[in-house]
Design goal:
Largest sheet: 5 strands, parallel
Order of helices and strands: EHEHEHEHHEEE
Helix content: 40-55%
Strand content: 25-35%
Number of helices: 5
Shape: globular
Low-confidence stretches: none
Structural class: alpha/beta
Distance between the termini: 36 Å
Oligomer: single chain
Length: 151
């Protein structure tokens, strides 16, 4: 039996305007590692201010290396992209086979009250990888729990 690592997660924040060069350096390093280990996906996130033009610029800068290495950069449906229509618009603007969505099922639902049908309508074939987790809302906010025991 052969096991394969499906995705490398970056820790950078694409929306952090104070760390552009560090983010690009980290993504490029992850792309190199993914290429060497035959890992098909590298995940990125964008939290904080909705700096779409800034995020667009970073993606535009790293996408050529994705295409060269045959690796798909996955933008997670969290942070500023909890509203999956915004992620769809970003993905549409590039129209690249090397840029897609990672559907974090939790964030659009719990943070933007977006139902799964809307997420599928917005992202459809762009979804290449999925993160599943469950949670309940309590007085302290979101509490993660075992799959099936949440909302």
């Amino acid at each position: 039996m052969k096991l394969q690592i499906p995705c490398i997660d970056t820790v950078c924040n694409l929306a952090d305007t104070s760390a552009k060069e560090d983010s690009i350096k980290e993504i490029n390093a992850c792309l190199e590692i993914a290429g060497n280990l035959h890992i098909p996906y590298v995940r990125v996130k964008a939290y904080g201010d909705e700096n779409y033009d800034f995020v667009y610029g970073i993606i535009a800068e790293v996408l050529p290396l994705c295409e060269q290495k045959g690796i798909v950069l996955l933008i997670e449906t969290s942070g500023i992209f909890c509203d999956t229509s915004k992620l769809r618009d970003m993905l549409d603007s590039f129209a690249s086979d090397n840029l897609a969505a990672l559907w974090d099922m939790h964030s659009p639902y719990f943070i933007k009250n977006e139902d799964p049908e809307t997420t599928i309508k917005n992202l459809g074939a762009y979804i290449k990888h999925v993160h599943i987790k469950d949670a309940v809302m309590n007085d302290d906010g979101i509490e993660y729990c075992i799959i099936g025991e949440g909302k």
